[in-house]
Amino acid sequence: MMNIATLKDKNIFRRIRDRFFIHFPSFKYRNFRLFFFGQVISVIGTWMQSTAQSWLVLQITNSPFKLGLLSAVQFLPALFLSLYAGVIIDKFSKKKILIFTQSSLAILAFVLGLLVTLKVVQYYQILIIAFLSGLVNTIDMPARQSFYIELVDKEHLMNAISLNSSAFNLARIIGPGIAGILIGAVGYSLSFYLNAISFVPVIVAIFFVVERTIRPGRFSLRDLEHVNKDAIEGLKYILKIPIILIIFALFIVVNVFGLNFNVLVPTLVKQVFKLQSTDYGFLMSMMGVGALTGSLFLAVISYKGVKHFYLFGGALVLGLTLLLTGLFPNYYLTIAFTTLSGFSMVLFLNTANTLLQMESSEEFRGRVMSIYSLIFLGFTPFGALLTGTLSEKISVQFTYSLVGMIVTITTLIVYFLGYRRVFGREELHVRRVSGSYEGNFPKK
Known about the structure:
mainly alpha; 17 helices
């Protein structure tokens, strides 16, 4: 009887395990498991620093414009250097690049914490550290985005991206909440120190990842002699692929106008609702709840393939939630709208990220993802300065409504005048698991 019971238990366990791997196949890969669990810890620290840094700037300056300027300075390097970063990533070991960038970010976080501890921190110092962090992230972000293909097979790419996004958004829930409590209890510095420490697990994890693609291990200027030519070739490659052009066209508008939460949310909480850092941390955490839900949703259904519907649906809902937040500035309604914003934002970003990598060849993937980073990071200064200026000169409610309207209208225009004309109605519901269109163009 014991043997029969044991066999039944084993069969139940096997069915649960098999079912788990159907929905989360990325966990079958050792490389992915290492990277994932290292990332979970690291990004909690990142969100703690982001929350503490935004509130610190508002505390020092009481200026939404200067908060927007901080975001602009942080992302400015990507505007000018992303194309070259893509060439470096395509030519050298992503693993060694990531160990360097993650170590650099840890040092910068520690320096910021030290300045706060010594009580000498000033706004211009925060700007300098933000600029240096942006310089490092210009290489780090596209390297991480194109690193997924080293962790799993191509057919599981959507699952890997969504699970990593889940880790990022789980941290979005935990990090701001912890930072808000720490700011009220012991001040700002501990959030920065904990962020510096949080980089250690992911650096160790990356060290043990085995790369699939062999690239030169050492950096050589000779390998970058034709960097301008390589960058131009990457742009020409992108121009040949309609779906990538459509994604980038929509992504530019969504990123510039729809993703400035680090400026809009603290300004809304402090100046309209007249609340404290803990309330700001809670609101950002609720955005994380929505984003985590969106990530897990995509991860669970990823075995069905990638639907282009998620791209346009996510952008449309994001625009509408921003518009509604501006029209109805009530704290409890804002909690609901912000949570939905998090869900729709992840739906859009993860689908865009996956499609870009699936449609790109190995030779150009780093350069394609560097354009993704160029838009995601390099175009942010324009949106941050715009939203910060409008929030200060007019009102944050007006800014929410304006950017929401722009994102909503642009999504409809790109879908009806761009996507539908190129691909037709049926493509929106086609399930894609791997591979590309023939020649990357739709059949006539």
